[in-house]
Amino acid sequence: MNQNQSPFVGNFLKGLSLLLVCLFAPQMQAQEQPNSYSYSLQEAVQHAMEYNYTIINSERDVQASYKKKWETIAVGLPQISASGNYQNNFTIQQSVIPSEIFGGTPGEFTAIAFSTRHTATASAKLDQLIFDGSYIVGVKAAKTFLDFYKISKEKTDIEITEQVINAYGNVLLTQENISILEKNKATLEKNKFETNESFKSGFAEEEDVEQISITLASTVSSLNNAKRLEKITLNMLKLVLGINLDDDLVVTDKLEDLTRENLDLAITGTEFNVKSNVDYRMGMNNQEQRRLEVMNEKSKALPTLSTSLAFGYNGFNNDFDFFNSQQQWLDYSYLSVNLNIPIFSSFARSARTQQAKIKLEQAKTELTELEQNLKLQYEQAKSEYEYSVEEYTTSKNNMRLAERIENKQQIKFREGLSSSFELSEAQRQLYASQQNYLQAMVNVINTKAALQKLTAQ
Predict the structure, then answer these.
(1) How many whole angstroms separate alpha carbon 442 and alpha carbon 436?
(2) Family assignment (predicted)?
(3) Does residue 264 fall inside a structural domain?
(4) Disulfide check for 248: which of 19, 36, 126, 343 has CB 3.0–4.6 Å away?
């Protein structure tokens, strides 16, 4: 504390500091706490449409293309500019003229300065484009350019939707796997305890205890790995949603419920309209861009016409006195019309036009190839979805059958009618069928998302 400062002031400042800490500390602490989210799949998709990083930048591309379109249009609108210049000729440039003009000796020359020490200029100019074929094509190209980014935004939305569905399904798969593995672990621990007690009583072999221990250790390892994967899959989903990795996220849908919602074979019966596919529309846009390039090269053979209107003032003085009311300013103005007629370019324009035509033909061929590829992709996606639905039904029945077999082996083992090896085999068969069933449910969700990605409009 300053020695000149009174104790009262010092105590007052300490009290004020303590009060500020009490007031703002809870708010600062609240700001540091992570956010919490609880989403169904549909809610997750809606969140991603607003906060996904790629979608945000895709929307910015659209906004930038709007500005680019206006930039192109503005080229043909009046352009006004103003300029000012001040020059200090501290060493004035001189020229020589014959001395006899001033009555001097013929054959001799006299150096004369044709400028003043200080000069100032102020001017304004208006330029207006009257006709330019490239400008007309450029305006059309700007609209095509804007349409490209709009379609690109649609494509991004569709792709991110598929990514959200896949990431959400992986989280559900991991969580369901953890739940099943924990049940299997509890069953194996019970089996091991009962078998160990029977071994102590002489009613079971040590090999039986060891066999169950092997299966239990494998299950525990799988469970630990599944728990690690749960965090990874949740973080992957957060990243797609545009959520901070430190925030909390809870998925509310159940894997089996979501699978049943996606069991819709009627979707495979609809006719595939390839021209509504977003990739096909991007191909059409690319073809239109190449067509405009051909038009642009052709337009360069047309005359261009523009006009300019300018006016300004010049001031001259041997002293810097331009702000004096007596300063004389010499005005000037002009109107100019500029006409440029291309006549001969040694066939350079023709070569550029032919190159543009070749690129247009390439774009047409690429579009035809894209159309065939999309039709093939649709057939493959439809086949994979139909197979996933069939596999889901098969794996569900196989799991129920494996559960019954394992249950019977449990009973036989307890009654001494079955060996620990036979029980372990039945358990491994059950665990494999459980994993197949979980994967089959996720495949139904993912393959339908892939099919909808192709048919999205």
Answers:
(1) 10
(2) Belongs to the outer membrane factor (OMF) (TC 1.B.17) family.
(3) yes
(4) 36
Question: Where does the pLDDT of residue 203 fall: very low under 50, low under 70, confident under 90, or very high at 90 and above?
Answer: confident
What is the Cα–Cα distance from 413 to 215, expressed in whole angstroms? 15
Tokens of 194: 């009962």
Q: Does the structure show a pLDDT above 50 at 130? A: yes
Report the alpha-carbon distance of residue 21 to residue 18 in Å, rounded: 5
CA gap 255, 250 in Å, rounded:
14
Q: How far apart are CA 143 and CA 241, in angstroms?
A: 31
Contacts of 227 (CB under 8 A, 6+ apart): 178
Residue 450 maps to a domain: yes
Question: Of how many residues is the chain composed?
Answer: 457
348-359 pLDDT, tens per residue? 999 999 999 999
pLDDT value at position 14?
57
Examine the domain organization and report whether 159 and 203 are in the same domain: yes
Note whether 296 and 169 are same-domain residues.
yes
- H/E segment holding residue 85: strand 79-88
Say what the pTM is: 0.83
Instruction: Please give the mean pLDDT across all residues of the chain.
Output: 89
* pLDDT tens profile 86-128: 999 888 888 888 887 777 778 788 878 778 888 999 999 999 9
What is the distance of C-alpha 108 from the center of its chain?
A: 79
Domain tally, the chain: 2
Contact call for residues 250 and 39 (beta carbons, < 8 A) = yes
* Residue 362 falls inside a structural domain: yes
Q: Read off the CATH number of the domain in which 183 is found.
A: 1.20.1600.10
Mean local confidence (pLDDT), 160-169: 96
The answer on 190 and 124 residing in a single domain is no
